[in-house]
Structures are given as C-alpha cells and as structure tokens.
Design brief:
The complex is a heterodimer of chains A (111) and B (112). With 111 residues, chain A is an all-beta fold. Chain A is 0% helix and 49% strand. A five-stranded mixed sheet of chain A has the order 1-9-8-3-4, with no helix packed on it. Chain B is mainly beta. The chains are: A mainly beta (111), B mainly beta (112).
Chain lengths: 111, 112
Amino acid sequence: LAKTTQPISMDSYEGQEVNITCSHNNIATNDYITWYQQFPSQGPRFIIQGYKTKVTNEVASLFIPADRKSSTLSLPRVSLSDTAVYYCLVGDSPGYSTLTFGKGTMLLVSP
Amino acid sequence: EAQVTQNPRYLITVTGKKLTVTCSQNMNHEYMSWYRQDPGLGLRQIYYSMNVEVTDKGDVPEGYKVSRKEKRNFPLILESPSPNQTSLYFCASSPLSAAAQFFGPGTRLTVL
C-alpha cells in the first residue's frame, strides 16, 4: 500500500484559499487518491477522489500532476467551519482492502 | 436516509466483560470495516469485510472479532476487553465499485 506524507498542521484565515499537499511517491498504477475530512469526535467524511489531472466538486479541487507522486487538495475561501483534520489516502478501486489513514493535516482557520 | 449506524454510542465497561458494538448500513454496500482512533495515532483499521461471510484482518486485529452474516450488519466483538482497548471506534461501508467510505458516528468505549 502506498504510504502518504502530509504536513502535520496548517493555519489559515477566513476567506483564503488553502492548499494541502500529500506526497505518495510509491503510488501504484491502479491507485486512486482520496481525501477525507474529520471533525472532532465524528467519523471521517469523504471530500474528493481522483486518479489524474484535476477533479473539482462543490467543496474542493484535487490537483494531481502527471507523475502522480503527489496531490494537492485545494479548499477555496475557507471558513471557520473548515477547521478539521484532512486525510489523504491512496489505494486501488474497486474497494479498498486494508486502509491506512495516517495522522492527517490539522487545518486551523482563524477569523 | 442513507447512513451507517453504530450502537452503543458510548460504553463504559470493566476488564474481561464481553461486549459487542453493532454496525448497520442501509446502502447495500458490500464492503464494511472497523477502525479505532487514538490520540496521536490516527485511524487504524481493525477488520474489514468484502462481502457476506468474508472477513479479513486490518492493521490492529488483536483482541477483536467480527462477523458478517448479513450484508447490512458487521458487529465488532470484544471477547475479553482490556484497558488498552479504550478508544473511539468507527464503522464504515462502501460499495466495492468505489473506494470512498461512509463512516458511522463513532462509539466511545472505556474499559476500566
């Protein structure tokens, strides 16, 4: 399973764009990249998933360069409610088997 | 409403007293999984199941059992709980065709 590396924490202010980068140097050909968000004492919530180039949904964008050894989650104009831990996961689909979440990135958004 | 439910949400018990945490999903997902979350260690997978009667160990299976007799249910069993199993537990499910998982609300377990 590809190991991922993310910053432990990031700080931002309301209204700013936040980019969280995840490194996954040994990503396999069949692997997808998935990001989750977790608030304290709640289960992780799926944000976005991608395989290559760029994926965008109503809450975030995911940028994946051609070599796929890293990915960047972009949150446009964050608000206080975006304060959470963000996890990057790499694994193949259909269905992950053993999933390793890692420690994630704690994003703190201030007024 | 599509959801994953867990019961109980909170449980305080004593060492050695067998307990079961139930997990149920109403989305007809083939894949189900259990995680535990501890401060500083992140989420760690305990067991997972690709379908009915198919279960496999995750990263930290010791001290836990699971069963998958029906597609919708995936109970976590602690035959003889110990204090080091005090943790926040999450159940999750997903269709095999998509890797994104839906998580339950969590069960906070304290073993004295």
